[in-house]
Write a structure and sequence with these properties.
TIM Barrel; eight-stranded parallel β-sheet; alpha/beta; globular; 16 helices; Urease, subunit C, domain 1; 2 domains; four-stranded mixed β-sheet
C-alpha cells in the first residue's frame, strides 16, 4: 500500500501533517507530528494549503471541442442551430480527445471528480481513467418523442449498463434523460423504473429556462419539477442540473425528496437563462445543493473556483445581502455536497475519507496577505493557483505538470478543426 505524507500544509487556519495510505486519508495531525520514515512520497506543504478536490456535479466534458462556438444566442437556438449539428459528426475517438482536454483543465483547476452527460460515454470513460480522475458516465437519452428512437435507446441502455460491469472503480454508470423538452413521458417512466431496479443515479436538466417553464405549463399543465415528480423521478438518486426556475411548491418537492440540485452560474449567465438560483430556499427545504460548470461551449471553462466566485457574487447581489452563501458553505457546495450526490465518501480532509485532494500554491500575490484563506481562494485567486492534485491516493498533477499535456492540446485542435468547419465557424 503506497503512502503519501504532506507536511506542514495549511488546512484552512492551521498547519497540519496529512498522511494518505492507499486511496484513503489515514490521519491529520498537527504539523511535525507524523514521522517521515517509511513513507513512499513526502510533499513539503510549507508554502501550500490543502483543500478537498472539487466535484463538478454537471459537465459535458467533450464539449471542450466547441469552446467559442455558437456565441451570443439563447439556449434553444444555441442547441438546435449550433451545437446539435456539430455533435452529429462526433465519434468515440473525437469524444475521447475532447474529454482528455477537459480532464487536463479540471485537474489543473483542482477538480478530482466530474458527473458527465454526453455522447459516446466510453470515450469519456477511457479519457478520465487514463488521466486518473473519478467520474460518473451516463447513457445520454434523447428521443424527441419518436417511438423508434425510444425502443432503440432501451436496447442501447441495457448494453451500456452491462458493459459497465468491467469498468474501473473510478467510474460509475448512470442514465441521463436530457430534458423534458427532448425526452418523452414514457421514456422518463422507463428510465425511472430501470434506474430504481438497478440502483442507478439519474442525471437530467431541470427548469433551466423560462421557456422550458412556459412549455411545461402549456403541454403538461404544471411546472417541469411537478411533471418529473408526477412521473416518480424525484429521489436522492436524482441529479437535477440547473433547477433555476422554481416555485415554492417546486422547492418543497425537491427538498422533501432530497434531490441533488446543481447550480451552474456561468452557463446560466452566458446563455441568459436566469440568475436567481434559490440556494437558501433549496438548502433549507432539504435539497442537496451542488455546483457545476456545465460544458465549455456554454461556460467556456471548467474552473470550479471561477464558478464558486460567480455563485457567491450572484447570491449577494440579487438578495441584496453581503452575507449570502458564506464561504465555508460554498466550499461544501463545491466539494462535499457533490460527493454526497454521487455517493462518494469524499469532500473532507479527515481520516477515513477518500484521498481526493488538491494543494494550493500560496506563493501567489492573491494569497498575500493571508488574513482569510477561503476569501483569497474564492475572491482573489482562480484555478491557476492549484499546484498538485491527488485522486484516489494517486498524484495526477504535481508542480502544475501533467504528463502528455502538449500532445493532447495539439490533437484536440486537429479534431476540433475536423468537426467545426473553419469557414462556417467564421460566418457564425
Amino acid at each position: 500500500m503506497k503512502s503519501i505524507l504532506i507536511t506542514n500544509v495549511l488546512l484552512y487556519k492551521e498547519r497540519k501533517d496529512v498522511l494518505i495510505e492507499g486511496n484513503t486519508i489515514k490521519s491529520v495531525e498537527p504539523a511535525g507530528s507524523i514521522p517521515e520514515q517509511g513513507i513512499d512520497k513526502v510533499i513539503d506543504g510549507s508554502r501550500k494549503a490543502i483543500i478537498p478536490g472539487f466535484v463538478n456535479a454537471h459537465a459535458h466534458s467533450a464539449m471542450t471541442l466547441f469552446r467559442g462556438v455558437g456565441e451570443d444566442v439563447p439556449l434553444d437556438q444555441w442547441l438546435r442551430e449550433r451545437i446539435w449539428p456539430y455533435e452529429a459528426k462526433l465519434d468515440e475517438e473525437m469524444v475521447y480527445w475532447g474529454a482528455r482536454l477537459a480532464c487536463i483543465e479540471m485537474i489543473r483547476t483542482g477538480t478530482t471528480t466530474f458527473n458527465d452527460m454526453y455522447w459516446h460515454l466510453n470515450g469519456t470513460k477511457r479519457a478520465a481513467e487514463e488521466m486518473g480522475m473519478r467520474s460518473v458516465q451516463s447513457f445520454t437519452w434523447l428521443d424527441h418523442f419518436q417511438d423508434d428512437v425510444i425502443d432503440n435507446n432501451k436496447k442501447l441502455l441495457k448494453e451500456a449498463h452491462k458493459a459497465s460491469a468491467g469498468w474501473s472503480s473510478l467510474t460509475t454508470f448512470a442514465v441521463s434523460p436530457h430534458a423534458i423538452y427532448t425526452v418523452a413521458e414514457k421514456s422518463y417512466r422507463y428510465i425511472n423504473s430501470y434506474a430504481r431496479d438497478n440502483g442507478l443515479m439519474v442525471h437530467t436538466h431541470l427548469a433551466e429556462t423560462r421557456s422550458e417553464m412556459d412549455q411545461a405549463e402549456r403541454d403538461f399543465g404544471m411546472s417541469p419539477t411537478e411533471y418529473l415528480n408526477k412521473l416518480g423521478l424525484m429521489s436522492s438518486n436524482l441529479v437535477a442540473a440547473h433547477s433555476l426556475w422554481l416555485s415554492s411548491d417546486d422547492i418543497k418537492i425537491l427538498g422533501d425528496n432530497g434531490v441533488n440540485t446543481v447550480h451552474n452560474p456561468n452557463s446560466n449567465l452566458k446563455l441568459a437563462s436566469g440568475y436567481k438560483f434559490k440556494y437558501n430556499e433549496l438548502r433549507d427545504a432539504g435539497a442537496n445543493v451542488c455546483l457545476g460548470t456545465d460544458g465549455c461551449a456554454s461556460s467556456n471553462n471548467l474552473d470550479m473556483i471561477d464558478s464558486m466566485k460567480t455563485a457567491a457574487l450572484l447570491q449577494k447581489v440579487w438578495r441584496n445581502d453581503p452575507g449570502a452563501i458564506p464561504l465555508k458553505e460554498l466550499m461544501n457546495v463545491a466539494s462535499l455536497n457533490g460527493a454526497k450526490a454521487l455517493h462518494l465518501n469524499a469532500g473532507k480532509i479527515e481520516p477515513g475519507y477518500l484521498a481526493d485532494v488538491a494543494l494550493v500554491d500560496m506563493a501567489k500575490p492573491s494569497f498575500v496577505p493571508n488574513h482569510y484563506f477561503l476569501a483569497n481562494l474564492v475572491y482573489a485567486a482562480n484555478g491557476e493557483c492549484i499546484d498538485t492534485v491527488i485522486c484516489d491516493g494517486r498524484i495526477i498533477m504535481e508542480n502544475q505538470q501533467i504528463p502528455g499535456q502538449e500532445e493532447i492540446y495539439q490533437k484536440v485542435q486537429e479534431v476540433a478543426d475536423k468537426v467545426v468547419d473553419y469557414k462556417k465557424r467564421k460566418k457564425k
